User: Fold this.
Amino acid sequence: MDKESELIQRFVPVTIHSKKLISHLGKEMQSAIFEMIEASKYANNIFLEQVSHDGVGAIEKVEKELQESKKSGNETQQKLLERRLHLLHLFAGPYGKPDGVNFLPGETGTIPPEAGFYPKGTTKEDIDKYVAAHPERKEDILAIDTVVERDGENDFKAIKFSERYERWVTPLCNHLDKAAEILRITEPEFSHFIEARSHALRTNTNLYDTDIEWMRLPSKCPVDLVIGPIETYEDQIEGMKGSYQSIVFVRADNEMQKLEEFKKLMNKMERNIPLKEEYLREKRVDGPLAGASSSASSGSSEPETRIELYNVVYLGGDAAAPTYVVAHNLPNDERITSRFGNRNQFYLNILQTKAEKILVPISNVVIGEAFRKYVSYDGFFMHVLMHELSHTLGPSFVRNDGVTTIKSALQDLYSTIEECKADVLSSIFAKCIVDGRLYRSDGCKEGEGEAKKEENSKERQKLITEEELKSIHVTSLASMFRSIRFGHESAHAKGCIIQLNWLIAHGAAKPGPSGFEVDFAKCDEAFWLLGKELLEIKVEGDRDRAERLLKEYGTDLPDYAQHYLDLLRPLPIDLAVSFDLD
Assistant:
């Protein structure tokens, strides 16, 4: 088996029947969706240039070789090059996962930390030293939507995304403008957002304003769009540069009533996280879910948590390569979330497929036989749900000063600490629900206390049971191995390595004769202690302490854990999704 075939086997081929998903919508909306999909394809091209300096060049080279092999009639070489080209698109460049090594013939390098955002060979020390000496340029150099280039031998300059990627941004925005025009009458608010977002991407201005407008979109619209520079995981230098992505999705209103109950608990959960009282604050209102009017859409400035279920019609850019995103908590800008809250979006068709095709096979290898019964799609969904909700928990600013963002304090370590925090607090969240800490009879009239307690007890049992909590714990343990396989440079993988090592050190996860076993009581205690550590790092903006945590828990795994990870090598890492648009 050639190297290309071996790498392709790391992905499970899956087809999303996009046209079927939108068949219930009117012709105008369907036409607009296809324009959004065309725009999304250009997001793929931009992301390729952002991941590394040699991604686009590698694809163009293989495409040329493929054309030459077709002309020569060499079918064996043609099939090899087709596989190689397929891999370049799956990995968004020549660096395979999970090892990050260049898989092209004759190449041995690993994915560079500067990605395509900074000049080749640039280090964090280079950028930090430069912005310290040129504070007037710091904002542009560290902006989410600029590329940094050399300007002479010892100088740097910031190039706007709209300028650097103009050949892709222009057609992307042209398709967005067409979609906006189609929906101008039938969906005026959504149309206005698409048009404003297009203008912001085309001119490199007002991304902040369009994020606010996106938060204010009415929940009645059956379709949504996320497009532009969103996540900063690929920037291993400063953790500030946004990678282009695009997601087009349609609403799926499954089990919304149950999810509304989770949202009602957010303020109480905020008061139950392992952090000093002085840093706790109620920062959201119990606004309505998708399907009802919201404070964000009505213009209120009160922060609100929105929970929304969707099916993905198309994924592009950073949302699709090399792993497909299953959920989002957006916007990422603390200035917006502190005023308007967050939209927590879950992509059910991707979640269900990953649980079946990726997570369950992993659990059959790494989880002890007696504990495998706890691994389920429901456990996976609940873990992901509370992970995304937990992104909103805790402070956004250092010591809640409203000025210094935690992201700016932790810099390149922020994403790892934040992803780890969301995972850990999701387990604490579930435990608090089961224990009843989020259900209190405070405020009951005299004589109503016992009745209220009984009502709360019944509600608590319906939301998450003890058995479901066990499912969440074991499923999340299996999912840690899933995420670690993304590659150690991934923020999600690093966060999961920290968790796994922490659980092992505290006796909560231990190897058994057929895989890892879980001590549920120790698991709850370990998560509480790790949550406390992570939240204190965040609220103090303590990058040194974060670095120490990563050094002690976030690098290597014990030999027996690494053994189980090695056993997973024959299993696929993620999905290879094709979209049926015909």
